[in-house]
Amino acid sequence: MTASVPTLDQPICLRRPALRPWCLRARLARPILAAVLDRAPVRVTMPDGTTLGGGREADAPTLHIVHPTALFERMAHHPKIGMGEGYMAGDWEAAPGTDLADALLPFAQRITTLVPSGLARMKRVVDRRIPSGTRNTLLGSRKNIEAHYDLSNDLFTAFLDETLSYSSALFDRSRPLAEQTLVEAQHAKIDAVLDAADVTAGSRVLEIGTGWGSLAIAAARRGATVTSITLSHEQAALARERIAAADVDEPGLAARVEVRLQDYREVSGQFDAIVSVEMIEAVGEEYWPTYFRAIDDLLAPGGIAAIQSILMSHDRYLATRRSYGWIQKHIFPGGLIPSSEAIEETTTEHTSLRVTATHRFGRDYAETLRRWRRTFIQEWPTIAASGFDETFRRKWEFYLAYCEAGFAADYIDVAQIRLERMEAA
Question: What is the mean pLDDT of residues 308-333?
Fold first, then answer.
């Protein structure tokens, strides 16, 4: 592990035992949480045997609160971070027989109605501003990317498929999912984004966000010349190894691919196609105009760009864009999911690019995450041997399940978006 990990917010009642009788935050949080739970068909059991929640059916997902005071104060201290940190700390868990993502799904399905209107008006009181230290400046972007992608190549190889694709796969919905491997679905995703950008033999391709090299290799196999950029030292090193290995069986392939440690703002040249898979989420709203202007400037006449982006509804984007949450603190510092409207507004106002096609497949991301989480849990002994602790395990289990529930509930989506320049008449 090379990156630092944010610490948990420690409830004041735990830090200063003498103040426990005055921990009103924790006392107030219980009835508020109870009101929220009543709106979801989930059963929540307490250590004393009492139950909360609207889950009345025998097969309702069940959660168990292990340390009520600690959890309630975390929730009161920061509702958007406290629940996830409570799971990391072991304050609550899914009951035996309940899958964590299944338990989170009812909340994701009701995200806009869970909080009673009277409490929702307190949003400005409980929201935290996004720390200025996570801005995606040239230096900040490198730090933010390193905090996640430079954790360890061994970590990612343990739970990703052999393509090492850390983005949504694209399944064939005309066939049963059980008959499709993650590998073939990831290859289908890669082919789809290359097709969207019209990548063929002779194409000059810029890939913004290398990953571990599978898309660059696929483009080179089409006869394209690829410049692939990343800010992750770990990714760059392994991508170069994988490209060299592919060259053994396909001599000449490596000569068509260059992997650079470079920011998209530092690239020069002209490209027939620009592809970027789930990288825009790390750009930050402040820099979306810069990102799309860079694509616009780097595209050769008649060139096409294709990006794959996680999306949320425009209403939810507007409601959360200034708010600091658990994912931003513990998983993707500096990250923000755009809406399709935000992308179109940014490109229209700041570039000559226009969205000409969009293919959405959010439920495929739920399936992708389900498979990642299953493999992550199976491979945990191997991952732990690399130096990751139990708090890290619970953090990543929650992260994968939380995101799976979001996609399964259609709260968040993913799409491949084709962008073409609107040439001057």
Answer: 93
